[in-house]
Amino acid sequence: MNKTTPSERPSDEADAKQIAMAKKEGDAYHNSLRYMAEEVADAGGQKRAGDYIVAYAQERAEGMYMPDKSGRLKWSEPTDENCHLEISVSDAGDKRFVPYLTIKATLLPVTGAKIGPFEIPFVWHPGLYHYGRNIKVPGDGRYALHVTIEPPTFMRHDKINGKRYVDKVEVEFANIEIKTGRE
């Protein structure tokens, strides 16, 4: 029997055609996610966790635009950061990206002290919406990545599909290989 998740059930808010379109959007997002995690990043992986699919990708630290105090965008290169950590959170039913989340991550090196927890903010990227940030780690090697997602405070439509994302979610990726540096 194929068990459905709430986002797959037609309702008075989302008919079968809308559910099918949402799944197509999610499939397209996951195609981009697989490309980022498997072909662009140095390391990547994903797991189901509660109502979510949580994925990570790791690259060398990279520059990005940040708003300054006046609201103007200013390019900022990494200083002592040597690792860029990216987290994707998508709905487990339709696989669409879930925005407006509070995400924290902790890295646990095989040897040495833990790094974090640190917040992973949203990053607009031309190829894939995700959460991410540059951090400083001791160096290349194997780490465990612990990700915590707080229950979001956004409203949810739909009496049938809307009762989701209510629990804090924690997921761990063991034995990931991190390569340090700057792009």
TrEMBL record:
List the keywords (alphabetical).
Signal
> What is one Pfam family matched by this protein?
Iron_transport
UniProt region (Disordered), positions on chain: 1-22
Answer whether the UniProt record assigns the keyword Signal to this protein: yes
InterPro entries, per database record: Metal-bd_Tp34-typ, Tp34-type_sf
According to the UniProt entry, which residue ranges have a biased composition of type Basic and acidic residues?
9-22
The domain of life is: Bacteria
Q: Which family does it belong to?
A: Belongs to the UPF0423 family.
Q: What is this protein called?
A: Fe2+ transport protein
Q: What's the source species for this entry?
A: Phyllobacterium myrsinacearum
Q: What is the lineage of its organism?
A: Bacteria, Pseudomonadati, Pseudomonadota, Alphaproteobacteria, Hyphomicrobiales
